[in-house]
Amino acid sequence: MAATRPKAEAGTATRILDVAERLVQTRGFNGFSYADIAAELGITKAGLHYHFAGKAELGEALIVRYSERFAEALAAIDASGLDARAKLDAYVDLYAQVLSGKRMCLCGILAAEYQTLPRPMCDAVIRFFDDNEAWLTALLERGGADGTLSLSEPAADSAQMIVSGLEGAMLVARPYSDPERFKSSAQHLIASLT
Amino acid sequence: MAATRPKAEAGTATRILDVAERLVQTRGFNGFSYADIAAELGITKAGLHYHFAGKAELGEALIVRYSERFAEALAAIDASGLDARAKLDAYVDLYAQVLSGKRMCLCGILAAEYQTLPRPMCDAVIRFFDDNEAWLTALLERGGADGTLSLSEPAADSAQMIVSGLEGAMLVARPYSDPERFKSSAQHLIASLT
DNA sequence: GTCTATAGGCAGATAGAC
DNA sequence: GTCTATCTGCCTATAGAC
Predict the structure, then answer these.
(1) Distance in Å, alpha carbon of B3 to nearest chain A alpha carbon
(2) Is the minimum distance from the CB of B50 to strand D below 7 Å?
(3) What is the pLDDT of residue A9?
(4) Which residues of A touch B170 (CB under 8 A)?
(5) d(Cα A130, Cα A122) in Å, to the nearest integer?
(6) I want to staple B168 with a disulfide (CB 3.0 to 4.6 A). Which of A6, A42, A167, B110 is the partner?
(7) Alpha-carbon distances of A46 from A10, A13, A14, A51, B71, rounded to whole Å
(8) pTM value?
(9) In which element (H, E) is residue B181 found?
(10) A8 confidence band (pLDDT: 50, 70, 90)
(11) Is residue B7 pLDDT above 50, yes or no?
């Protein structure tokens, strides 16, 4: 009765998601195929269809899992006890961690390919940005209230600028293969709030 | 002897570039095919190969033309006689104009697909960003000198942040189909310099 | 849960006629 | 400069054996 195995090695579905996630984040959704995943896992293309009916369903599952993990990371920051200023730094560091794996944000790269994605994936991408901006807006407001951040604009506007600014910093840093480029842009981005 | 016809209707090569440019900017380089272009122009796929040997050569030609046009737009801003502050606004407006056509910056979307592009295209994408940052750096330095802009960081750092911030603002605004979203983010991005 | 086998389609590309 | 015809290869996906 191993309904929930705490430390079992990853099941096949999870390993498929892991490989597919890396492929999307490095090559884009239109830049990889079932064959790429199958070859890497040592199974056949047909075997993949047992776990994910089609590429659209796989893509949807990728965004759902990615968003859940991101939400968990945000919850961890919320629970950290840091002040708002430090939490903002921690938020920026989430993006830096993604980039350090030479990856683009999953939803950032999907935003680039947005007009070619199946509808369910589109909706999930939008939700990711909405959730991030909502969380960041609340953080900025708390920072403005406790004096650790100085807001010169409505918090929602700053949140929008920060999310898109961080996505852009990742986007441009990757061709240069230079994580420092991201960190520099990100720091200047939030400098006006500190 | 029509070596240079001033107002001739576009030649086939130009029309191919026009269609391909729009397809890349809306769907990505891996999101369209020769068949899409051929269908739209009413010629066959084989006909395209006469003008551009392969998709790689077409992609390279796209970046070259796009970069030339961008450089011309920058030269026009230089020649405008506006102060540095107004020139910065004009620069932001170049991006807004691209987005108003429901398109992403050509090199921004190629940056997302960077790891799947043929080498010559990669080099041309990097050059585009280098050129933009160099132009913007010079502008910011002039603005700092004449007092119309207030630099709190080295001009090159601010230029990097602005270019990547504008690319990100385009990237995220497009799924929302909301040009206002771009304008808001862009204004907040340069607010600290004004 | 993974396999073999295969379908049906589209990709980028080429040869050679007109 | 554009066509027809064709190639090879990869794509996503399915049927059915094991």
Answers:
(1) 39
(2) yes
(3) 74
(4) 168
(5) 13
(6) A167
(7) 20, 14, 17, 10, 49
(8) 0.96
(9) helix B179-191
(10) low
(11) no
Q: Which residues 137-166 of A are in CB contact (within 8 Å) with B?
A: 152-153, 157-158, 160-161, 163-166
For B32, name the nearest residue in chain A, comparing CA atoms only.
A116
Q: Vertex A62, ends A117 and A92: CA angle to 5°? A: 100
Q: Are B125 and B114 in contact (CB under 8 A)?
A: yes
Given this model, what pLDDT does residue A5 score? Answer: 42
Q: Does A193 touch chain B (CB under 8 A)?
A: no
pLDDT digits (tens, 9 = 90+) for B117-139: 999 999 999 999 999 999 999 99
Question: CA B132 → CA A161, A177, B72, B109, B183, distances in Å?
Answer: 21, 18, 12, 16, 19
Mean pLDDT of A81-103: 98
Work out the average pLDDT over B183-194: 96
Is domain B7-191 annotated with CATH 1.10.357.10? yes
- B180 contacts in A (CB within 8 Å)? none
- Give the CA dihedral B85, A157, A111, B171, nearest 10 degrees: 0
Say whether A157 and B116 touch across the interface (CB within 8 A). Answer: no
CA(B193)–C1'(C8) in Å? 58
Percentage of chain B beyond pLDDT 90 is 94
Say yes or no to pLDDT of A6 above 70.
no
Q: How far is CA A111 from CA A22, A130, B109, B160, in A?
A: 16, 13, 10, 21
Contact A161 B169 (CB under 8 A): yes
Q: pLDDT by residue (tens digit) across B49-69?
A: 999 999 999 999 999 999 999
The full set of domain ranges for chain A reads: 7-191
Which of A92, A94, A190 has the alpha carbon at shortest distance from A150?
A190
Write the Ramachandran bin of B150: left for phi over 0, alpha for psi from -120 to 50, otherwise beta.
beta
Chain segment B81-99, per-residue pLDDT in tens: 999 999 999 999 999 999 9
